[in-house]
């Protein structure tokens, strides 16, 4: 089918959904095979943001063909919603081009760039306007899409609209106070590269001879932490203690299952465990973060990052998104303790949960570290006797307090005394009066004395996303 006359840079709509029987994630996303997609997504070895030769992800195809349940499954598991194909098309581009109104509504909930231009300079509204999808046009404009943004050929959504839609767009421009002065063409954002793809494609088990441990940067109850290199990348290597330094077959089997679940490469706010050394002693390998932990950034005078409240809340949003993903996993990763020592910050100032800090079953998990961030019930009961999700929300509340005040919780107490006061007296840090009243309310809700009344992370996400603290 030829390009429509006078519509340079626009490709024609696809025809009927292709017939396919090959059982792979791309064809399953095109065919609407929800069961296959869900099983594939649940496998931690699969890259949820995998792309084909054209840069399309499975989520692109699910949006293109209109399968809301598959899209929701990808969203819940942390698939990137801002990824673009090799032509610069976002999820919103393909859903708008193919007239999938419900998909557009669902995608808009993730707050995408509605004016993102592809390689031709076309925004999602260009496509919806050209194909006369009036409902989609209205929804896009209500979410900030520009009616007169020019593509690289000088076409705007308004100039390519049919008469009825043109009147509608002009009315929307007046309603939302949009100028009809043409907005120049925007350059295309380059396709985002998955920085961990190289690690994702490698085997997790590594020979010790392949890893160089150059600088010892920490010593703790569970072992030593080293800065090193592996396969040309700077990494963090944790040399872990085992009980009696014996790693029996049963422990090895459990460990293999546990570390495999920590190779989560599909979420922007999670640092995966990228490799392990098993012999002669257990080591875990993670991504090295130059800026350090959130605790270091917040409280160490030598940190090169000085955090204001707005930036601190942004870190909390990142943590919230990462924790919502971890809590969507079944079974739950039970031994990742949420505190600022286990959150690291990338050079683009994105906070990431560091999964190599997860404790394994062969470790002594009865000991308590960093009690100032732990929920009372966690300090009082065995793991099977409390709600881990509610306990994590308490820890998140302490971090919110921390970024709001710039202080260390229970800084005047030793860890043992802090843990005792929290467990015995249900103590909380005092919220100063200068803390934003919206933040005060969120903190109070999140560290509620009754764990059953604390919200889940997926409920807090939209509240934090809309929170203004300036």
CATH architecture designation of the largest domain: Orthogonal Bundle
Low-confidence segments, given as residue ranges, are 1-22, 187-194
- Secondary structure class reads alpha+beta
Specify the CATH homologous superfamily of the largest domain. Transferase(Phosphotransferase) domain 1
Quick one: biggest sheet? Answer: 5 strands, antiparallel
**Name of the CATH class of the largest domain:** Mainly Alpha
Write the layout of secondary structure elements.
Layout: H1 25-31, H2 34-42, H3 58-65, H4 68-76, H5 91-97, H6 101-108, H7 124-130, H8 134-142, H9 163-175, H10 197-200, E1 211-220, E2 223-230, E3 233-240, H11 249-261, E4 270-271, E5 273-277, E6 283-287, H12 294-299, H13 309-327, E7 343-345, E8 351-354, H14 376-380, H15 388-405, H16 415-425, H17 437-446, H18 457-466
Parallel strand pairs: 4-8
Antiparallel strand pairs: 1-2, 2-3, 3-6, 5-6, 7-8
Helix pairs in contact: 1-3, 2-4, 3-5, 5-6, 5-7, 6-8, 7-8, 8-9, 13-15, 13-18, 15-17
């Amino acid at each position: 089918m030829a390009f429509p006359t006078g519509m340079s840079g626009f490709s024609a709509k696809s025809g009927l959904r292709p017939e396919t029987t090959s059982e792979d994630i791309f064809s399953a996303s095109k065919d609407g095979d929800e069961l296959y997609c869900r099983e594939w997504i649940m496998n931690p070895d699969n890259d949820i943001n995998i792309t084909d030769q054209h840069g399309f992800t499975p989520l692109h195809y699910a949006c293109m063909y209109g399968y809301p349940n598959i899209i929701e499954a990808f969203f819940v598991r942390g698939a990137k919603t801002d990824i673009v194909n090799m032509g610069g098309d976002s999820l919103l581009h393909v859903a708008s081009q193919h007239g999938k109104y419900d998909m557009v509504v669902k995608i808009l909930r993730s707050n995408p760039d509605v004016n993102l231009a592809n390689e031709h300079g076309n925004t999602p509204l260009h496509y919806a306007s050209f194909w006369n999808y009036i409902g989609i046009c209205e929804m896009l404009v209500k979410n900030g899409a520009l009616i007169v943004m020019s593509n690289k050929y000088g076409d705007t959504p308004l100039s390519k609209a049919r008469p009825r839609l043109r009147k509608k767009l002009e009315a929307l421009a007046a309603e939302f106070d949009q100028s009809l002065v043409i907005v120049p063409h925007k350059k295309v954002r380059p396709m985002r590269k998955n920085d961990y793809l190289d690690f994702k494609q490698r085997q997790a088990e590594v020979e010790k001879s392949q890893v160089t441990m150059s600088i010892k940067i920490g010593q703790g109850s569970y072992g030593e932490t080293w800065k090193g290199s592996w396969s040309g990348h700077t990494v963090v290597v944790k040399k872990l203690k085992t009980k009696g330094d014996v790693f029996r077959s049963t422990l090895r089997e459990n460990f293999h299952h546990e570390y495999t679940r920590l190779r989560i490469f599909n979420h922007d706010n999670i640092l995966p465990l990228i490799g392990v050394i098993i012999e002669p002693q257990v080591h875990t390998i993670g991504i090295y973060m130059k800026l350090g932990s959130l605790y270091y950034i917040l409280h160490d005078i030598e940190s090169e990052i000085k955090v204001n409240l707005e930036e601190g809340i942004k870190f909390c949003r990142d943590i919230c998104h990462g924790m919502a993903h971890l809590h969507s996993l079944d079974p739950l990763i039970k031994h990742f303790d949420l505190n600022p020592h286990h959150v690291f910050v990338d050079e683009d100032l994105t906070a990431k949960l560091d999964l190599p800090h997860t404790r394994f079953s062969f470790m002594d998990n009865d000991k308590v570290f960093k009690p100032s961030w732990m929920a009372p019930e966690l300090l009082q009961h065995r793991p099977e006797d409390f709600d881990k999700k509610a306990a994590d929300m308490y820890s998140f509340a302490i971090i919110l307090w921390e970024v709001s005040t710039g202080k260390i919780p229970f800084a005047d107490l030793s860890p043992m005394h802090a843990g005792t006061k929290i467990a015995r007296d249900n103590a909380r840090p005092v919220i100063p009066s200068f803390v934003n009243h919206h933040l005060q309310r969120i903190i109070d809700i999140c560290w509620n004395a009754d764990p059953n009344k604390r919200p889940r992370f997926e409920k807090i996400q939209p509240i934090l996303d809309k929170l203004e603290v300036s």
